[in-house]
Amino acid sequence: MKFEEKIVKRDTIHEGNITTYQLLDVILPDGREAKREVVLHNGAAAVIAFTEDQKMILVRQYRVSIGKTTLELPAGLRDEEDRDGMTTAQREFEEETGLRAKDWRFVTSFYSTPGYTDEFLEIYEAQGIENVENAREQDDDEFIEVVALDFDEAMDAYSKAELCDAKTVFALFYWQMKRNKEAQEANE
């Protein structure tokens, strides 16, 4: 069976600073017509940063869309001048935390919610964390607290739904897999 939907009409409803909202008329594979609501997004990058004492750097901030304060990976939007996701990750990590990392490694990438948005998220691991003397400033509308949690503290935050967004939940279970692999290698 062919699954592709053919777009026959595209109306832009709103163009914001971060996203563009569109209403699409599509022809389904069986020939019927349907409507789709789509959010276009420039993409983002997130950082799984580990300190030397095996703590993960997170940021605490209020998210008005869900009406609560969360613990999340440092992350941010890809700017037009960013040459790649690594550039975005490094810039956002410094802006949000006042820190830099010596060692960077690509972990994964994925579409956050392809049912309605084309947001593409790249995730990087950072180690060799150091303070930046004259760090990039946070955005004017960001109020962020930098937090370093050990694994048990992060799992506790997850169980209390403080750590609850997809990228950070992914990071927590990525960390758990790394710990399991390290323990297995130590036992061999």
Automatic annotation (TrEMBL):
A GO BP entry is:
ribose phosphate metabolic process
Listed A to Z, the keywords are: Hydrolase
Asked if the record carries the keyword Hydrolase, the reply is yes
Q: Indicate whether Amino-acid biosynthesis appears among the record's keywords.
A: no
Every Nudix hydrolase domain range: 39-171
GO CC annotations? cytosol
A molecular function GO annotation: hydrolase activity
- Named cofactor requirement(s): Mg(2+)
User: Record's InterPro entries?
Assistant: NUDIX_hydrolase-like_dom_sf, NUDIX_hydrolase_dom
What name appears for this protein in its UniProt entry? ADP-ribose pyrophosphatase
Q: Origin organism of this chain?
A: Atopostipes suicloacalis DSM 15692
Organism lineage reads as: Bacteria, Bacillati, Bacillota, Bacilli, Lactobacillales
